[in-house]
Specification:
There is one protein chain. By secondary structure, the protein is an all-alpha fold. The chain has one domain (about 10-235). About 70% of the residues lie in helices and about 0% in strands. The chain has helices at about 10-30, 65-85, 90-115, 125-130, 135-165, 170-200, 210-235. Helix 1 (about 10-30) runs antiparallel to helix 2 (about 65-85) and helix 3 packs antiparallel against helix 5.
Amino acid sequence: MHPGNEPRGTRRPRSAAARAVAFLLLLGALAYSTWLVEALLPTGLSTLSSYVSELAAEDQPYGTFFRTADLLGGLFVLMGAVAALVWLPRRAVTTVGWAGLVLFGAATVADSRLPLSCAPTADAACVARERAGEVPWTHAAHAFSSSTAVVGALIGMVVLTFAARRGAAAWRLLARTGPAVVAVELAATVWTLASVAAFDAGHGTWWLGVAQRLQLLSIAVWIALLACSLRSAAVPAVRRG
């Protein structure tokens, strides 16, 4: 049945569900962007060269605050993506996209519970402990959870933007602006990976902090665009004449 011919009783619950999913995703995007307040706090970390995760390290003064923000961001996106899979009409392509966001949300939650124990880009002793294998297992596991979160985000961003462009979902805002944000995210991810490799090899940070912050900001902006697209699609068009 074509969406325009669905009974009113069917459209209303779906519209309400879309608005609920949009609300959860928007909360997730906002919470996931809380690291931006580092500009107002005396963190002692360089925005040019430090990992964002270092703000939430166990030995940092505002670690608990940033870990809590990551936890909430992951939970909101996870709940929104699961709700979309359960409540919203979907096709195979959108199912894959929402599953990517489920992975992103779950991995971000895990990330907040597996913090770094210290800040390697700002503390030579921390780097030495890492290389000697003397850091807690949570510190070592953090790299895996962070990488998994980015993989999930990329799956969701690429697949759902493709779905919007192909008309598999009526998300006009995402169809127009999503490709540009995805392109920035992919470029920032490549830059981040190159910077991490350079740092691990002892060749400096290559502005690692800028690269990763651009990467995380692109994810948050894209999730917000998806939320706004869902909200707009849930509003019935006004008939004229």
